[in-house]
């Protein structure tokens, strides 16, 4: 009988060691609140980084975009005078 009792105790010991009590509700609420705050901080930091990158990209494009040039007027194509344009229609 003692051997059986010792065997049961030996087998139950690892199970008892692995068992943990759940955290008190206060601690769980604090951890959840901290996780939410961390997520908000990360989102705001990500949004600030995106805004800064957009500003830098706009400045770069403004500084490195060549000015728009008007197309050169070819001398082959002459504009039709208004008096002749109304006759052709």
Please characterize this protein's 3D structure.
- With 89 residues, the protein is mainly alpha-helical.
- Helix content is 72%, strand content 0%.
- The protein is built from 3 helices and no strands.
- The protein has helices at residues 2-18, 25-64, 82-88.
- It is rod-shaped.
- The chain starts with a helix and ends with a helix.
- The model has no long low-confidence stretch (mean pLDDT 81).
Q: Tally the helices.
A: 3
Largest sheet: none
Radius of gyration: 40 Å
Derived from helix and strand composition plus strand pairing, the structural class reads mainly alpha
Give the uncertain stretches in residue-range form.
none
Q: Which percent range fits the helix content?
A: over 70%
Report the principal-axis shape.
rod-shaped
SSE arrangement, N to C: HHH
Q: What separation lies between the terminal Cα atoms?
A: 119 Å
- Strand percentage, roughly? under 5%
Count of β-strands: 0
Mean pLDDT: 81
Question: What can be said about this structure in brief?
Answer:
By secondary structure, the protein is mainly alpha-helical. Helices cover 72% and strands 0% of the residues. The chain contains 3 helices and no strands.
Topology record:
Layout: H1 2-18, H2 25-64, H3 82-88
């Amino acid at each position: 009988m003692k051997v059986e009792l010792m065997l049961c105790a030996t087998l139950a010991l690892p199970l008892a060691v692995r068992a943990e009590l759940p955290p008190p509700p206060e601690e769980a609420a604090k951890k959840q609140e901290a996780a939410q705050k961390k997520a908000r901080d990360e989102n705001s930091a990500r949004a600030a980084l995106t805004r800064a990158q957009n500003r830098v990209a706009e400045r770069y494009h403004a500084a490195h975009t060549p000015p728009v040039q008007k197309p050169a007027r070819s001398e082959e194509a002459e504009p039709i005078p208004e008096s002749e344009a109304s006759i052709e229609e």
